[in-house]
Amino acid sequence: MALLAYLKTLFILQLLISFVFVVSGLIINFIQLCTCVLWPFNKQLYRRINCRLSYSLWSQLVMLLEWWSCTDCTLYTNQATVDKFGKEHAIIILNHNYEIDFLCGWTMCERYGVLGSSKVLAKHELLKVPLIGWTWYFLEIVFCKRKWEVDRETVFRGLERLRDYPEYMWFLLYCEGTRFTEKKHQISMQVAESKGLPKLKHHLLPRTKGFTTTLACLKGTVTAVYDVTLNFKDKKNPTLLGIISAQKYRADMHVRRFPVEEIPEEESECANWLHKLYQEKDALQEHYEKEGGFPGPTIIPPRRPWTLLNFLFWATLLLSPLINFAWGIIISGSPLLIIGFILFIIIASVAVRRLIGVTEVKKTGSSYGDQASKKQD
Questions:
Q1: How far is 138 from 124, CA to CA, in rounded Å?
Q2: Which positions ≥6 away from 34 have C-beta within 8 Å?
Q3: Which of the 8 DSSP states describes residue 299?
Q4: Cα-based distances in Å from 89 to 155, 227, 322
Q5: For residue 177, which of 212, 209, 216 has the smallest C-alpha distance?
Q6: Which residues, including other chains, have CB under 8 Å from residue 340's CB and lie 6 or more apart?
Q7: d(CA 248, CA 270)
Q8: What's the gap between Cα 338 and its chain centre?
Q9: Rounded CA gap, 183 and 299, in Å?
C-alpha cells in the first residue's frame, strides 16, 4: 500500500492520466460532432448516444475522486429520499464553496446512474474551454452570461428544449452564482442588508432568477428539488490538484427532497422560498462547524466499478501507442527528436495545468455589487 501511495504522487503518472483524459476527450468530442447528423432525424437517439459519450469522459474525473484519491462520500438523508435517486427528473441546489464541489455532485450522479445526463446552468465563458465546454455543448447544457437582459431568451429556449429529455436528469444550480470567498461574502451581505434580508454566515445571497426560471420552464418534467449542503471533515479545503495528487478527503453531503408541488409557483413567493432555504442551509453549516457533522441518519452509497473500467479502457487504448512512440524516440538517439518530445511534455503539462485552473476558486470572478448583478433578481 505504501508503494501504491508513492506511485500516485509521481508526476509522470499524473501526466499520463491527464493525457488519457485530454486525448479521449478530443476523440469523444469528434464522435459527438459526428452524431449531429442524427438530430434532424432522431433527436432522442442523438441524446441517448451523447449521454453515454459524456459519461465516458466525466466518469474519468469521478474515477480520480473515487479510486485514485479514494475520497469518501457520505450522505446525510433518509432512505425514502435515496429511493427516489435516479428515478425522477430533479433540480439540484448545491452550495458553491469548494473547487471540487461539482466533482462530489458528479460522484452522486454516477452512483445513481444519471452522470451522463446531468445538466447545469453554466457561465458562457466555459463554452470556450476545450473538452469541458465542447462536451457540454453537445449535451445541450444551458449557458448564460449572468446578465438577465442578455440571457432571457437563451435560457428560456434552452430550458424548454429539455422538457422532453429521454434520460432521467439532475439539473444542477449554483444559486449563489459564483464560488464563496470572503471578499464576495462581504459584498453579498451588503446587498442582503440593502434588501432587508437576513445575513448569511456560510453562503452568498442566492440569485433567485435562475432558480425561479428553471423551475417554471421545467414544470411538468421535474418532480422534485434536492437541496444539497456539502462540507468536508477536519475543515479541509480540497482542490482538484489535491485529488490528482491522490490526497484523500472525506465529504459529507446533507440532502433534502422537496416535491415541486410544495414550492410556490408565483415568482416572488418562489424567490422567498429560496431565500428561506439558504437560511436553513446556513444553519446546517453552522451545525457542522460546531458538531463536525450534519444532523440525521447517514447512508454511504457504494462505488461502482464502471468509472474504473472506463478509464482502464481508454488507458489501454491510448497509452500503448504513446509508450511505443516515446521508446522509439529514445532509442533513435536523435537529439532533435528527444528535445522535441521533451518540449511536447512541457507544453502538455502547462496545458493541463491551465485546464485545472478553470476549477480554482481564485480564478473565478464575481459581479456581486455591480448594477448588472442587482438587476438580475
A1: 14
A2: none
A3: E
A4: 18, 14, 41
A5: 209
A6: none
A7: 39
A8: 38
A9: 35
Check: CB of residue 92 under 8 Å from CB of residue 172.
yes
CB 108 within 8 A of CB 253: yes
Query: Whole-prediction pTM value?
Result: 0.88
Contacts of 194 (CB under 8 A, 6+ apart): none
Give tens-digit pLDDT for 297-336: 999 999 999 999 999 999 999 998 888 877 888 888 788 8
Q: How confident is the model at residue 375 (pLDDT cuts 50, 70, 90)?
A: very low
Cell of 311: 478509464
Q: Tens digit of pLDDT for each residue in 224-243?
A: 999 999 999 998 989 888 89
* Residues 61/106, Cβ–Cβ less than 8 Å: yes
Give Cα separations from 237 to 75, 105, 123, 281, 284 (angstroms). 19, 16, 23, 19, 18
Give the whole-angstrom CA distance, residue 56 versus residue 50.
Answer: 10
Residue 214 to residue 217: CA distance in whole angstroms: 5
For the chain, state the CA radius of gyration: 22
Instruction: Give the distance, in angstroms, between the CA of residue 119 and the centroid of all CA atoms in the same chain.
Output: 9
Under a CB-based contact definition with an 8 Å cutoff, are residues 136 and 172 in contact?
A: no
Cell of 323: 509508450
Quick one: cell of 275? 431565500
> Does residue 335 contact residue 113 with C-beta atoms inside 8 Å?
no
**Phi, psi (5° rounding) for residue 167?**
-105, 145
With H, G, I as helix, E, B as strand and everything else as coil, classify residue 23.
Answer: helix
Q: What are residue 93's DSSP bridge partners?
A: 173, 227
Q: Which residues are registered as beta bridge partners of 225?
A: 91, 258
Q: State the alpha helices, DSSP H only, in the chain.
A: 2-8, 11-35, 43-63, 79-82, 101-111, 132-138, 148-161, 182-194, 208-217, 240-244, 267-291, 306-332, 335-357, 371-376
H-run or E-run covering 144: strand 142-144
Work out whether the CA dihedral 84, 89, 92, 98 comes out positive or negative. positive
Highest mean pLDDT among 14-28, 143-157, 333-347: 14-28
Give the pLDDT of residue 360: 54
